[in-house]
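Support case: user asked for a sample of complex input and structure output to validate their parser. Sending the pair below.
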Amino acid sequence: MSIAVKGGLVIDQTGERVADVVVDDGRIVAVGPDLSGEEVLDASGYVVAPGFVDLHTHLRQPGAEESETIESGGWAAVRGGFSAVVAMPNTNPPIDCAAVVQEVLALGGKAPCDVYSSGAITVGRKGDQLAPIAEMAALGVRLFTDDGNGVQEAGLMRRAMEYAAGLGVVLAQHCEVDSLAAGGHMHEGEWSSRLGIPGVPAEAEELMVMRDIALSRFTGAPVHFQHLSTRGSIAMVRAARQAGVEVTAEAATHHFTLTDDSCASYDPVFKVNPPLRPADDRDAVREGLADGAVDAIATDHAPHTMDAKERPFDQAPPGMLGLETALALALTELNLPVAEVVGLLSWRPATIAGLKGVHGGPIAPDAPANLCVFDPQEEWTINPDDTASRSRNNPYAGRTVRGRVRHTIVGGQAVLVDQEMRP
Amino acid sequence: MKHLLSINDLGAEGIDEVCRLADHFTEVSQRPIPKVPALRGKTVAMLFYEDSTRTRLSFEVAARRLSADVMGFSVSASSVNKGESVRDTVATVSAMGPDAIVVRHRSAGVPQQTAAWTHASVINAGDGWHEHPTQALLDCYTIRDRLGSVAGRRIVILGDIKHSRVARSCVMAFTSLGAKVTLVAPPTLLPPAVDSWPVDISFSLDAVLSDCDVVYGLRVQSERQSEALLPSLREYTAQWGLTVDRANRLPAGALVMHPGPVNRGVEIAPEVLDQPNATLNEQVRHGVAVRMAVLYLLLAADPDLRPEGEAA
């Protein structure tokens, strides 16, 4: 069935123009004035963008289906305008071999968005022995990470980078030096000092960013930095790019929105890793997104059950939801032109994920029909219970934001229409 | 005031009020029958997730001297060991209708979380490295009793500040009352960003000894060695221990305080503990009167219970 998205401002990497977009049989078939289709989706006053791509999604399956499934997380994704997500490997069992990749991809078939699997760099994400990267790459895995853990051993990281570069895949690092971060539960600074919560210093992240920039320069292999959270990290990445080192970086929504003083409530909904930082680091993340030092916005969507998030702060797991709020927070908090926000959420992460040409545009005839239509002006108040996720660990309860996804089209199917999910 | 989670809940005026009430309850405690009916019919639940001798006993004695009923909750014998969550335990205890819950937990913030899950008043009896407000109150009371006031006093807090809930509460209490506080410790035992605290810092006990009114020692634990925070307890004692020699250099009348339990011979020499300016037993004794004051303030001073027309 053909669908005509009518009257919106079409924004993709090539620019912006008011046009109708018609999709049929999984592809965009026409872009222009006065087009029609069997179903018509109103987009007047809205932006028609490439479907968003999340480089950093915890779908919790296999192993923690009580907090999320690939299907429920997929619905949260399309409610947030995402047509593709990259599933992180810290599942149980971890995604560290072909069998688990296949399971994730098979379960992804039930999700309304495209689900791509990442793969672990090391067996069991334990940092001891290389995982079968080629075996997973053969199944289409493009991004490898031990996310949740940084690869601690410099020698092992060097070999992993060399090995991955030969396969044309990218390593993504969760930068955190364990010996500095161990036992910490929030950013180490004035607030951790007052609250008596053991801290994680910014340097725990920055030391590994520094090391991996050096390793990238040394090996010539690209490296992607996940959820950068400190001014120092972003400054190093900016300088490395200017020096021609092949590094890319993402920033998580919460790191440009929230600060460590939120932890004064002792509510573990504000516990996340890397931790919320002081305002100066938050501002540096915003600057990095504005000047291109940081390539992409990632959600680090990390569902946890209520029980887990009601433990004492130092016993609760880190992580917060993010898929359904990322666009609105970016539009509200970043003060960037809408087209730049769209780029940070779509074509730029699509490039890093190796999905160029499939996700992230362009919105042109014959391109795959992955679209997000959003109202850039609608104001709404975030309600944790209004979610497709199985979890409720949303740190933005009660916050009023601007910008709301109206329709999401994945592979030519309208899976979200006027915010209603269409199973 | 509904809860006592932090010294900040009281402020200088609140601390003064607790001290004034404690004067009264000290007098009560000296009566042949040291008991008043102020909280008759009230129930105080003890929710201690962490070992405690003096604090728990002190709260129990305080509650009983006010004629409140005490509901003990022994963690080792409870369903906590069967994996019950704090929230469920709080709900269970709350369902029995206590008017106050006294909480101690090894994790910072549990009293604050507890307050959100119960209708009872919550009293923080020590949470992780965060706070131990009633300890700071009894320390203020002890200094006031011995030296007349806390304001203007030069107080040295000595030892493992970083891991100490007592230090956090005491710093806030002493400084809000107008004392000048100096923290003395090796840099590894100071909290991060300590320059944001309203205190002076010294790494040398010898440099500050002759110029203070109170030395407040904190417990230093042997596990700080394995965490590479200290080379050895022997080195700690040599540099930062309150030895007999150092105690002799204190100004006349300067107090030696400690929240207990003492690591004898590590942070303070045993002989120093026996000197008349050491206040450890007084601190414990005052703890009962101060906790009576806190319980009274939270549970009896509800304006609604006063006769009509009387000011709150």
